[in-house]
Amino acid sequence: MRRSAKIILIAVALLATPVLADDAPAAGSDTPTESTWRRSGALLDRSPQRRSQMLSIFLGLPYGYFYYGFPFGVSGRYLIPILHDGFLPSVNDSFSIEFGLDLSGAVGTRFYPILGIPVEVMWQFHFTQKFSAYAKVGVVLEINFVPYVCNVGSIYCRGGAVSASPIGNVGLMYKFSDKVSFRAEVGYPWVKVGLGFDM
Prior knowledge:
The protein is mainly beta and 199 residues long. The protein has helices spanning 2-16, 34-37; strands spanning 54-61, 70-83, 93-107, 114-126, 131-144, 148-150, 157-159, 162-175, 180-188, 191-198. It is built from 2 helices and 10 strands.
């Protein structure tokens, strides 16, 4: 688990470097330094942390649900921190649970709506007070208003009025005010962007 965590941290640190320019020292170089990572709320800050609950609203592309027609969706999530200081004492991480509702549909020869009730666990790494990245896994209970959705010309069918599926995402969060954050996620079965509001 520690090796996987280190790989995730290195990959996200490389992606985060442009975002960290605002927090980096003005003199000398734009590259984040060791002291940048140790600032309050940064990745190597080992002080006790307190995380806020968050209500998020997303617009997205639920590509994993539909093989025929143009997919679209709206989504809501409520995040509750479980471990404010996460699993790794040497880094600023946290562990939370997130649940909500997904309403998705596809427009083709007819309209195919699905209501999803997801529950996910989130492991989040806080690189600065403003910027963090996370990975989520979970399950979604799906209510299919059109019980059988089949792809024309193939044997694929998504069947049953109620079904359950695994889900997973990686995402970024950027806090641009005291209470509001921009969020972006990619994974299965959605790609989505939205806003999170600290509660």
